[in-house]
Structures are given as C-alpha cells and as structure tokens.
Amino acid sequence: MTSNKAFEPACPLPLSTKKTIQLAHGGGGRLMQELIQDVFLKAFQNPILAPMHDGATWPVEKGTLAFTTDSYVVRPLFFPGGDIGSLAVNGTINDLAMCGAKPLYLSAGFILEEGLSLDVLQRVVHSMAEAARTANVPIVTGDTKVVDRGKGDGIFINTSGVGLVPNGVRVLPTLIQPGDAILVSGDLGSHGVAVLSVREGLTFDGNVESDSAPLHRIVADLIDSGIEIHCLRDLTRGGLASVLNELATAAKVGMTVEEPAIAVSEPVRGACELLGLDPLYVANEGRFVAMVPESQVEAALAVMHRHQAANQAAQIGIVTERDPSMVILRTVVGTHRVLDLLSGEQLPRIC
Predict the structure, then answer these.
(1) Cβ-based neighbours of 54, under 8 Å, separated by 6 or more
(2) What is the pTM for the complete model shown?
(3) Which residues make beta-bridge pairs with 292?
(4) Whole-number Å distance between alpha carbons of 114 and 97
(5) How far is Cα 232 from Cα 290, in angstroms, rounded to an integer?
C-alpha cells in the first residue's frame, strides 16, 4: 500500500508567535516553558524564585508564621485605580497584615482562558510585579493552568502569602473587649463604585478610583509604636457592616457605631443613592478596621494619619457589653437601627 502524504495525520507544533493564550500554554511543553520564562519569571525575578523548584524555601526567623490564600475573579480586569493583578497582590498582603504579620513572600496561581490576549496577560503580570516591588514582598513561586475557551473569564488569579508575626503580638477577634474603640482607616466604598462604573459603563459626578493599597506598613508602625491592638480586619467584600457583624459574633460583644463619623465621599454617596446601594456594605480594598483600647485612640490615629492610605482614619464607634453579637448604628438624625448582615448578596456583585 502506498503512502499518501497529503492525508497522513499530523499534530502541528504551536507557534510561539501566537498573541493569545493557547491550550498548549498549559500543557507542560515548549509553549508553557516560554510563557513561564518570558512572562512570569521576567516580571517576578528574585533569588528565591530563580531555582525553579516545586516550591519556595527560605530560612525562618523566630516568631509565629502566618499563612493566607485568596482567589480573585474581578470583572472587568482593569478599573480606575487598579486591576486584578495589583488587587491580588495587595489583597493577600493585607490579609497577612490583619494578622499582625510582616508579609514575607507570595505565590501566584493563574487560570488562563484560551484566547486571552498575551498583551492583557503581560499588563496584568507587570502590574502584579510593580505592586510586589512597591510593597517589598516578592512573588517566589506559582502555577499556571489553561482552560478551554468559554470555560473561564479571561484570567483568574490565586495568591497565597506567608508572613511573620513578631514575638508578643497577638491580633485576634476573640481579644476584642467592651470599651474598645472602633477605628476605620478611611472613607468607604470607592473600590466597589470604581469597579461597578467600568463594568456597567456608568459615569458618576466626581472622580472615583479604587482604594486598593497595601496596608502592612501602617500595621507595622502601629505595632512598633506600642499600640495595644486587639483586632484588625480589612473591609473587603461585604464592607464595614459585614465585618463588624463577623467580629461582634466572634467576640460575643455588642458594637455601637456613629453614622456621622463614617467617611463616605460625595461621589460614592451619590452613586450609591442612584443605584440603591448602602455604602456600608460596599467592598473596599485599601481600608481596615482596628479595635484598640479607648485610652490609645489618639496615639493610634496619629500613627495612621502619617500614611496616605489612612489619612482620614477616625474613631467611628465603641464596643459594648450590651446586645452581644449585634451592631447598632446611630444615624445622622439620632435614631438607632440594627446594622445586620445582608440576607442575600448586595447586587450587582463587584468582585
């Protein structure tokens, strides 16, 4: 039988000149190696990442290790004041900081959809690299997977982080006590409104940008200043109201917060009124709440005000023995209402 070359099956080699993500980028072959070398290693280069082992290793100082992980599925990928890449870095750094830890190292896992533009991926990765350099917290290991076209949303990112809690530092919800002051590091709702404005093609009066920022240096300064921090929590999905409810339940205490003391910018307030949203439930990515003894409020605020990301920090309330696990809001007109967890999800979702 003679061979007909024209009809012999063949598996063509993927071309490295492709400008979009191909399934072969996740297959362990040449394209995957080129993607790792040309995109990820080039952006995240550091001595711990360089050996290209299955994991990162480093010597550990004395203290308590903190470890956290989070996944980011933000749509759109880019929004005023940030993008999914810088958000993933800052968000994991902040989770470590809320444990009282000094962030040491990050990992980055990518789930890429077939057809994703390599230009978009490069932009996201460069943003992550810049955020990691700015925070001085390197990305030292990672993973990449590619899914079929239509099975993802362009790009999903998982970041994990390891940090070191200094000896003698304990920051836990169960340490919250009646009489503690409730401090918030700044105005609320900017991140949620910024993401929503791009996703829905909305224009609001005023310039609204995401508040996404690393918070670990603020926390480190509070610790170094000798402030007795009982608890810290970043105000991400679910916003201030959800976080306060979670903490009140964990500590079995009540909380009373003063609505006039809670900063919300006029553009954000106007956007929330237009969309029927409550800014107290809108996500933030560069704001946190701190519980400290009332005697240390002035000192804590002085430290926080030295940082751009916390220059509007203020006391917004007090922890009480009354109404355990309940958060009470004293409104601008002097009435009281329960600030409860949402029974469902505040729509539209923005992360």
Answers:
(1) none
(2) 0.87
(3) 181
(4) 35
(5) 5
CB of 290 closer than 8 Å to CB of 232: yes
* Phi, psi at 244, each rounded to 5°: -60, -40
Residues 6+ positions from 224 with CB-CB distance below 8 Å:
none
pLDDT, tens digit, 9 for 90 and up, residues 98-152: 999 999 999 999 999 999 999 999 999 999 999 999 999 999 999 999 999 999 8
Q: Is 12 exposed, middle or buried, given 0-12, 13-18 or 19+ CB atoms closer than 10 A?
A: exposed
CB atoms under 10 Å from CB of 139, counted, come to 28
**pLDDT per residue as tens digits for the range 36-79:** 889 998 999 998 888 776 777 777 777 788 999 999 999 899 99
Other Cβ atoms less than 10 A from the Cβ of 260: the count is 11
Residues present in the chain in total: 351
Nearest 10 degrees: Cα torsion 20, 22, 26, 32: -60
